[in-house]
Amino acid sequence: MTNYKPTIAIVYASATGHTESLAQMVTDALVRQGAQPDVFRVKEFDLVELCRYDIVVVGTYTWMNGEIPKQLHGLYEAMEQLDKTPITGVFGTGDSCFATYCGAVDLFRDMLHATTVLAATLKVEQMPSAGDRMRCDAFAESVLTKYSYHKGVPLAANF
Questions:
Q1: Which one of 47, 49, 52, 123 is at 20 to 30 Å from 77 when CA atoms are compared?
Q2: Which residues does 29 contact at the CB level (< 8 Å), separation at least 6?
Q3: pTM for this one?
């Protein structure tokens, strides 16, 4: 078990490119920690594959009045009904001029908290900037630390 690296999926949707940029920053942060995540746009991800990942990280933008984008509904429902309990995280982008800032992140967070082992959430105002790198590093570290703690394996042994 000490040489085992968890399988990690990052599954995201992006309308304007903001969440895609944030997904890349989160991926880079996980790689800096020694992880090797698989990254998918939600339309390219086979929901049957969810069960093969130890860690699932969701990236979302917020639609309309704080809603989850339509293309993420299937992922949301599949994660609600998982037979196993992965470590999860959710990140997203939004615009604080709307009443429900990053509402889709909050909706995923609440569901993931109830059905998985939620490690971290991250909200970024519109297009991520270089200043968000440290926040992505902290997000990645939280996810990997939660995995290590949950599996009872020292973090240094995995990464």
A1: 123
A2: 133, 136, 137, 139, 140, 141
A3: 0.93
